[in-house]
Amino acid sequence: MDDLLKFIHARNEADNHAYAEVAYRFGGEAILGSHLPMLDLISMLAQAYEAMEPADPRFDGTTYTLRVLAQSYDEHADYREEWRP
């Protein structure tokens, strides 16, 4: 799961940089307003998961959720098929 979390963090960071570049070049405030909050929430979910103990009742559901979210990057070279829920 550590590799999946690293993957999600890296994809979020790359997406944040990409959206910031679009906004800088084209004034894409609408893009920033709609996508950055979602990226922030995914990052918060990943951070909360990292702090969870496996006995936490949210653990299995959060694991599944992170796997589903990672699927949006399934064409990325670093995505692993074993992460698919």
Automatic annotation (TrEMBL):
Instruction: Offer one Pfam family short name for this entry.
Output: DUF6221
List the InterPro entries hit by this protein, alphabetically.
DUF6221
Q: What is this protein called?
A: DUF6221 family protein
Q: Could you read off the lineage of the organism from its UniProt record?
A: Bacteria, Bacillati, Actinomycetota, Actinomycetes, Kitasatosporales
